[in-house]
Amino acid sequence: EDVEPAGIQIAREWTQETPEDDPEPANIIQILQGLIKAAKRCKTKEAIKALMPLTGLVHFVKLRDSYRLHPKCHTPAMTASLIAARRLVRGPYFARQLRKLELYVLKYRKLPPSKSRTIVEQQSLLNNENIIHNLRSYLAILKIGEVTPHKFMQHINLIVLPSLGFTGPKVTISEVTAYRWLGKLGYQNKEAKKGLFIDGHERADVIQSRMRYIAKIREYQSFMPIIDNNTLEITNPFLPSGCTLMIAVHHDEMSVATNEQHRRVWVKEGQQPLRKKGNGRSIHVSDFILETTGRLALTLKQLEAQKRLPLQRQLKITDARVIIHPGKNGDAWWDCSQLMEQIKNAIPIFEFLHPNAIGIWIFDCSSAHEAFAENSLNVKNMNINPGGKQRCLHPTTIPLNNPPPLAGEEDTRGKPQLMVYGNDHPDPKLRGKPKGIKVILQERISVWRELVKAAGGNLTKVIGICKICKASQVERDASIRIAAQEQADGDVSIDDGTSNVLESSNNTCCMTRSLSQQQDFFDEKPRIQTYIEEKGHICLFLPKFHPELDPIEMYWGWTKHQYRAVSDQKFSTAKALIPKILDSVDVKLIRKFFRKTWRYLDAYEKGLDAQQAAFAVKIYKSHRRIGTVREVVEEMKKKSKDIDSILQLI
Ligand SMILES: [Zn+2]
C-alpha cells in the first residue's frame, strides 16, 4: 500500500485552513488564540504537542501585561513566565522558553519547528547551487502574491527532493522550513496596503520633483511655528517686520471599504502587493491637518463665540472635513468639483483660526487634484483649425521668452492674445469662434517662423500633430484613466503608468507639440492651485510615490488601526464609528506625525535614498532631524546586512 508523504498530508490540512485569507490578527493574544484554535481543529500529533507551549504563552503574556501595571513588580516578564510555567507543572527552563517564544510567534505567526522534524539534510539543502537555482526559477514564474510557504513546500517535497533521489516519509521539509527558506531567498511577508513604494521612489524625474518640493518647504520653514521635539508644545517663530506667519496644511483622502480584506502575501523585496477589490459600501474621508490646531475645525468654545456674532460674519461651515458614502446605491464618487467645494469652505476656517497667516496647502498629485479648469490653456482642448467642436480658452499673454523677432518682423512677445475671434471678424461664420492651434501659433510670429524653418521652409510640411505626439497622447490618456479608476476603487498602483510614455525630443516636430511647450501653456495651473493663490495662500503638490512626506497618511493609518480592532465589517458600524475615531485624535499625536515627515525631509535632503531614509527615520525617533549621513551609515552597518545600499553612499 502506498503511503502518502507527510508533506502532502500537512499540505492538505493547510489547504483547508487557508491561513493567508484570515483577517490580520491585531496582537499576540489574537495570534495565539488563532493558533490554538487551528491546533485543536487539526488533531495531528504535531498540533497536540503545540497546545502546551501555546497555552503557556497565553498565560505568560496576560500575566506579564498585568504585572507591568503593578508599581512594585520590577521584573514583570520573569515573574510572569515562572508563574505561567508553574501552572502547567513546568520549571524555569520552560519559563525561559516562553519568553523567547513570544518574539518568534510575533515574527513568524507560528511556533518554531520541533526538533524531531529538523533532519540534518534540510540544513545543507539550501547550500546546494542546483537546488537554489531550481527554487529561484520556480518562484520567478509565479505572479506577485501567488507565492505561499505552503505551495513552496509542496513544490520542494513533491518535485525537488524526489528529483534529487531523496524519498521516504522522513525526507520532507515542514512549512516552517519553507517560511525560513523563502526569507533566505529574499522574500518578505508583507501586508497588502498603501505604504512605502520603493519602486517608483528612485526614478530620476521623481527624485527631481522631491528635491524641488523639499527646497520650497525649506524656504517657508523659517516662517512656520516651532514645535518642541520633546514637549510638542508650539511657539511662534521670530518674524522680521513685513513677514507673515506660514502654516502648512496637508490634505488627503482615505477610503475604508467595509469588507476590506487584510491579506498577507509573499512578495520579493521591493515588490508591493495590491489590495484586493471589495464590492461593499465604502466610507470616503477628505480632510486637512495642521501642526497648530490638529484638524481644521472650530473648538466648542469657538463655536459658542461664533453664535454671538452677527449672522453675516458667522462661518457657514465650521469643520473642513467631508465624509461621503460612495458605492452601490450610495453617494457619487469623490471628484475634483467636490474637492473644490471643500477648499472653498476650508479657507475661511483657516483664516478664522489664523487671521493674517498664509496657509501652505499641500496636496498629493493624483490626477483628480491636478484637474484643470475647462477653459485652461491645453492643446487637448483645441483643434488644429478654427471653429468646429472645441473649447473657448481664456485669454493669455504671448510668452516673453519666445525667440526674438528678425529685422523688420513684428515683435509679438508680451502682447495679449485672445484664443477666440472677436465679434468684428470679417468672416461672420468665425465671429466668437475658437481660433485653433494653427492660428494661435501664427499670431506668435517668431514661433511660427521657427516651425516653418524646421520643416525646411515648406509650409505644407508643418503638420498639425506628428505620429509620436499622437501616440503619446493616446497612451497618456489611457494611463490617466486607469490611474483614476484605481483611485476610485481604493486601489493603489506601483507606477502611475506615465514613465514609459515615449515623448517627442524636440519642440518643432509638429504644431501641437510646439504650442504645448509654449511657456503660458506649460505653466497652466490646476484649478485648485489657481483658487488657493487667488485667496492669497500657497498651493504645493507632494512628489509622486512619497506618502511618508504626508503626515495625514499617518493619521489615516492610525484611524484604520483603531477601526480594525473593533470592526465587525458592517457598513452601519463603520459609518458611525469612523467619524468618532477621526475626532478622537489628539493634537500632539498629529504633531508627532508632522515630526516624522520632517525627519524624512531631512533624510532625503542629506541624499539618502528611500530605503536608507526609512531606516534613518526609524532610529532617530522623537527628533525632527536625523543624524549625519555617516552616523546613519554606521548604524545601518551595525543593524543591517544590506551592504549594497551602504556602499553606494561611501
Ligand atoms: Zn509632434
UniProtKB/TrEMBL annotation:
* Source organism superkingdom: Eukaryota
Which InterPro entries does the record match to this protein?
A: RNaseH_sf
Query: Molecular function terms in GO for this entry?
Result: nucleic acid binding
Gene3D superfamilies noted in UniProt: Ribonuclease H-like superfamily/Ribonuclease H
Name under which the protein is recorded: DDE-1 domain-containing protein
Organism name: Sphaerobolus stellatus (strain SS14)
